[in-house]
């Protein structure tokens, strides 16, 4: 809101009017000051909103809101900080900036393919790209001898030089051998026999590198003390190596629980059938990650308490819930889509898929969930509009189910208002987004097109 300077009414009059005039001027200035304070507060609020959105959306791989398509700092944060390697929806002031693109290519070589047409066809730029990341040569349209030669020079310089061979069998320094084994389990093959034969030494060996179990005799693969020591180091890898040889240990409840409680819920994968059907063991695993439900018995996959615990912890665990529960338990279906909208693809009951609460909840989290929504809903324009109001990204998937001439202006605007998603970039849509989402934003470094008005 602009200050109304017409409110300032200064009149020159005789001395006896000075007091009244001073009061009028003072009051008007106070009003102006309050208006300026309000303006400043609003500007700061929308600036913070813009910067917060820029940070949060830069973590997103799905799309870029229209207000950030020309924002170089947005893409720098996305690529360099968040390691999200997609700039395909950026404007040319971003993907055509050679210095910025070289930073991106240093981080990820295939981003060369997403550079502007002019940069991709600039041989000098390609040479610089190979200098900062030689792997970018693989994504270049130029394959001439000079570029190939530089690529091979850099590639060969990266190859580790061969280290001098050490004769471990004649080495008397046990600690040096153990350190070598810690780096490379194969060293145990070249070490003195005691490293594979003496239990006291074997315990030290597996505590350094559990992969050495592959080179030990079956006697040690079945030795509970050795396996417990190895589990303390790496539970999953230990069980993966010994499970074919130590069936008795795979039925040892305390050992399997120990492995699970060491932060390896998928230790359940190697447990015996009896333990996969043990509710305590399975509960311990799914409380760490619900997807461990995939390793539980069919009976426990049909246990509602187990299923609800798994889905609450990890929504996509719904995929491994029994078909019986997925067909009959609405609460479980809703819980799944509340955590991951794409879980609507696993809802087995058509009635649940037509449930507006379930469908709209799914779409509010994932635009792609529209692909798995019942056709009766995804071709309903009223339903689609409501979904877009909850998640603008739904509009991307609408195109496949509603003819383009039936995609209304209101759908397009609601998507822009909701999260800035746009099928196409235009100044008009950018202005609509800025006026709706950041009506009093002032960024001195931004261009008028970014600010909208």
Automatic annotation (TrEMBL):
One Pfam family, short name: DUF4116
Domain DUF4116: 97-139, 173-221, 252-301, 329-378, 380-430
InterPro entries per UniProt: DUF4116
Protein name stated in the entry: Predicted protein
Species for this entry: Naegleria gruberi (Amoeba)
């Amino acid at each position: 809101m602009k200050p109304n300077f017409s409110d300032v009414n200064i009149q020159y009059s005789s001395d006896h009017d000075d007091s009244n005039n001073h009061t009028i001027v003072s009051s008007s200035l106070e009003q102006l000051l309050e208006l300026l304070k309000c303006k400043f507060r609003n500007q700061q609020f929308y600036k913070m909103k813009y910067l917060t959105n820029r940070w949060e959306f830069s973590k997103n791989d799905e799309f870029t809101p229209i207000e950030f398509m020309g924002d170089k700092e947005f893409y720098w944060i996305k690529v360099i900080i968040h390691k999200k390697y997609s700039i395909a929806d950026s404007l040319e002031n971003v993907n055509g900036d050679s210095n910025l693109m070289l930073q991106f290519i240093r981080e990820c070589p295939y981003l060369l393919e997403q550079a502007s047409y002019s940069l991709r066809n600039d041989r000098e730029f390609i040479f610089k790209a190979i200098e900062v990341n030689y792997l970018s040569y693989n994504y270049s349209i130029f394959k001439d001898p000079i570029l190939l030669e530089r690529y091979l020079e850099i590639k060969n310089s990266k190859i580790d030089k061969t280290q001098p061979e050490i004769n471990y069998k004649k080495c008397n320094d046990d600690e040096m051998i153990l350190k070598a084994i810690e780096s490379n389990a194969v060293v145990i093959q070249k070490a003195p026999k005691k490293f594979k034969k003496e239990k006291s030494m074997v315990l030290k060996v597996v505590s350094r590198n559990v992969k050495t179990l592959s080179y030990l005799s079956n006697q040690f693969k079945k030795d509970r003390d050795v396996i417990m020591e190895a589990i303390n180091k790496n539970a999953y890898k230990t069980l993966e190596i010994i499970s074919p040889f130590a069936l008795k240990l795979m039925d040892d409840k305390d050992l399997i629980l120990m492995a699970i409680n060491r932060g390896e819920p998928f230790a359940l994968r190697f447990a015996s059938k009896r333990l996969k059907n043990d509710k305590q063991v399975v509960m311990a695993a799914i409380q760490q990650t619900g997807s461990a439900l995939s390793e539980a018995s069919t009976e426990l996959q049909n246990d509602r308490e187990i299923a609800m615990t798994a889905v609450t912890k990890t929504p996509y665990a719904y995929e491994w819930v029994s078909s019986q529960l997925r067909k009959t338990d609405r609460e479980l279906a809703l819980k799944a889509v509340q955590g991951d909208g794409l879980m609507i693809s696993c809802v087995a009951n058509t009635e649940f898929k037509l449930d507006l609460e379930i469908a709209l909840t799914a779409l509010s989290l994932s635009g792609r969930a529209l692909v798995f929504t019942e056709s009766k809903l995804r071709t309903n324009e009223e339903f689609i509009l409501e979904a877009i109001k909850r998640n603008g990204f739904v509009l991307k998937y609408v195109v496949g189910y509603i003819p383009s001439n039936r995609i209304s202006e209101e759908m397009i605007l609601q998507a822009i208002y909701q999260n800035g998603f746009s099928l196409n970039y235009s100044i008009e849509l950018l202005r609509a987004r800025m006026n709706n989402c950041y009506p009093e934003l002032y960024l001195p470094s931004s261009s008028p097109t970014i600010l909208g008005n």
